[in-house]
Amino acid sequence: MTVQTPPPMAGSTIEAAFSGRLGNFALDASFSVPARGVTGLFGPSGCGKTSVLRCAAGLNRLQGTFSIDGEVWQDDKTFRPTHRRPIGYVFQEASLFPHLSVRQNLLFGAPGRQPPSSATGTSFEEVIELLGIGDLLARSTSNLSGGERQRVAIGRALLSQPKLLLMDEPLSALDRQTKDGVLPFLERLHDRLAMPVLYVSHDIAEVERLADHLVLMQAGKVLAAGPLAELQADPNLPLAASREAVVSLDAVVESYDASFGLARLAVAGGHFEIPAAAGAPGTRRRIRIAAGDVSLTRRPPEGTTIINILPVRILSETPVGAHETLLVLRLGENGEGARLLSRVTRRSWHHLQLEVGQKLYAQIKGVALTPASAA
Ligand SMILES: Nc1ncnc2c1ncn2[C@@H]1O[C@H](COP(=O)(O)OP(=O)(O)OP(=O)(O)O)[C@@H](O)[C@H]1O
């Protein structure tokens, strides 16, 4: 079996290529992503996400290569064992030491078991504050809630000062309410820490909120890897074709109209107004727009309650199912901006005599804010 090393990318990258068998399962996965921000490894159950993470950690030894920022952890000649890889690993269920306090657990992997200062990397105070675990430090780990345990496990991983954080479905063992409580902490980490993260999940909502880049996997192979928004809007990939298709756009707050409670945010090729306090001007936020919330009109509509109506051009049209079609749109008069998706009936496509390249107006019924991107 040959391993194809992905072409190198400019700047600091994670280069991964693993190939071989795990029991009956054949893994043949390679990707190259920036060594910054969160890279989501996403795909259906059993497609090989955890196996890739374990390869990156040196826990699975398959043929291949792995390097981060030019530092080779594995190739034809090299195989660094797990204890020589500067990684933090967060599992589905936190395995904390029951005989140690939260504070001792946190410091367990820290260099010299001492609280690191910002001079030596991610500081103890910063981690405590980011994860909201200051009140837990003296507690025993035996009676922490699931969400608290997971936050302590993440803190412990961060305090070991890793070069790469590996997270394997860190929220999947939590109930929906606890998960919703922990997600904002992950989002804050994402905003504030520069450390690259490989984040395994089969929950697309988590990926949309946290990931900057995506590695889409299926049956042991990588279908595509790249910036989240690009893969979301690729009509040849399963994300865009799904009924729940969305795009996540990185936006910057421009202003806030307090009288109507509307924030104005700029994205490439347009502006959105959102009924929320989105932060001070200059704040980076992420916007989520579902394909089903974007309808099209030939002329700017009048007398509508829809706030966001933006000029777009049709970039492509791909039939989905028997009666619908997926349109990839680009924002802006000349179609030079960010991509949106719109799912319309084939009847509308024909009746409105739409065609690729045409200028239209997108009426966007729902625009949701999610936290900022670090990429
Ligand atoms: N050491 C091993 N020996 C035998 N089979 C293995 C081994 N490791 C993984 N597998 C198999 O490889 C396949 C992929 O597993 P993996 O855990 O990587 O998938 P996944 O995408 O992370 O799935 P999930 O989302 O359900 O966690 C599974 O069929 C699993 O049983």
TrEMBL record:
Domain annotation ABC transporter: ranges: 11-244
Keywords, ordered alphabetically: ATP-binding, Cell inner membrane, Cell membrane, Membrane, Molybdenum, Nucleotide-binding, Translocase, Transport
PROSITE patterns: ABC_TRANSPORTER_1, ABC_TRANSPORTER_2, MOP
Mop domain boundaries: 303-373
GO molecular function: ABC-type transporter activity; ATP binding; ATP hydrolysis activity; molybdate ion transmembrane transporter activity
Listed GO CC annotations: membrane
Superkingdom as given in the UniProt entry: Bacteria
Classification via InterPro entries: AAA+_ATPase (IPR003593), ABC_transporter-like_ATP-bd (IPR003439), ABC_transporter-like_CS (IPR017871), Mo/tungstate-bd_C_term_dom (IPR008995), ModC_ABC_ATP-bd (IPR011868), Molybdenum_import_ModC (IPR050334), Mop_domain (IPR004606), P-loop_NTPase (IPR027417)
Family statement: Belongs to the ABC transporter superfamily.
Name listed for the protein in its UniProt record: Molybdate transport system ATP-binding protein
